[in-house]
Amino acid sequence: MNVLIIGAGYVGTTTGLLFAELGHSVTLIDVDGKKINDMQNGKLFFYEPGLDTLLTKHLCTGKISFEIDHQRAIKDNHVIFICVGTPQNQDGSANLNFLREASEFIGSNLIEYKIIVIKSTVPAGTSKQVKQWIEKTKKDPVPFDVLSNPEFLREGSALKDALYPDRIIVGSENEQATSTLQELYMGIDSPFIVTTPSAAELIKYTANSFLATKISFINEIAKLCDKLDINVQDVAKGVGLDSRIGPLFLEAGIGYGGSCFPKDVLALIDTAKKNGTDLSILEKVHDINENQPDYFIKKVKKRLNGLSAKKIAVLGLSFKSQTDDIRQSPSLKIILSLINEGAIIEIHDPVAKLPYNLADIVCQQDSVEETMIQADAVLICTDWPHYRTIDWAVIKNKMKSPVIFDGRNMLNAGEMRSIGYIYEGIGYK
Ligand code: NAD
After folding, report:
1. pLDDT over 70 for what percent of the chain?
2. What is the DSSP string of 314-332?
3. Which of 126, 145, 177, 418 is 20 to 30 A (C-alpha) from 286?
């Protein structure tokens, strides 16, 4: 099958490579010519384990190609996936400007039947809106269908998630178009759930908001654990073994970040408000998450008696490990607070880079050990597995004072103390 992907970002590129791997002929287009140019040369603009190898493979098989002529790309492909960004507006609602542009571009170039699939995360009812945008811009009376097929991949394990998804959700009102999508996903062993487009759209937001709720919930319990001197990991383990709850997303820390959870929680609150209902539970989830980096900083300030002129080593910049994505990263919020408090910072992250406005801060990609020399304290902000295997006993002698604040509860508190560190986690001492 010939598939066009509009928007060669994290989701578009992963989706395109998945379909190429399943044997389809995939074309990717993007308004950002540099991204396309780089990918044509086998270079991804983001870090995602395994994806670069697959790109190289399918550039060779010819199953993946990049089209500069966007009109021709619409003409040549039967199924069109829209994978553009849907960022957050100031008021928390989803910004659908990129989606509108892509829809109108499809409409103005529609000369024969196409199946248009929205993969971007969009509020319930958006597929109707996309239909209208296409209807308004198309010149000929050509039929088309708009389906919803939300994406559930996680950055850091995008390829695995695409190849082995928990489920494929398709919102469709046309049986034939549904069958085409079923054919497209042939080879993927997972439940294929067909529902209405609006329900499919709401499933995506509900799933992300539920996971965000789990995180904020355990973070609140962690604060109570700090007061009661109980280890939150023991609580999470005991709770997570309940098959009705499950162990995932019960890791206390400095809060969720990234390009999805923060904006999706706010967008769902907005949808509720616009429909005259109340999702105050999510407002609380959002507030807890916003305050979590401050909770961490307060611990640091208290222990170090202020931060002015203290040298702080920050380990991890990305919003989680295995990705270079720093969008809404709690680590960045912590770094900004440290700067405001007058601390001297050095950062380490194996792949992520600082944004331009912070480019004068030292950010090591190689030696994490160097970052910690003469530090008054180490703050772990991203759970890069490598941080577990650092020779902490050796590092201790190179620091000014052996203090670790573990924002991801990833080190063994007992071991750290036996080496001689002062160690504090979140709900974990
Ligand atoms: P991204 O910013 O990485 O990629 C979007 C791409 O679309 C960009 O390369 C941009 O240049 C391009 N684009 C914008 N307008 C265009 C247009 N008119 N024509 C062609 N290209 C255009 O975004 P992403 O992280 O891939 O997310 C895309 C969507 O998928 C969002 O709605 C997001 O919420 C959702 N999603 C993201 C993830 C994730 O982990 N990143 C997971 C699931 C769902």
Report:
1. 100
2. EE--SSSTT----TT-HHH
3. 126
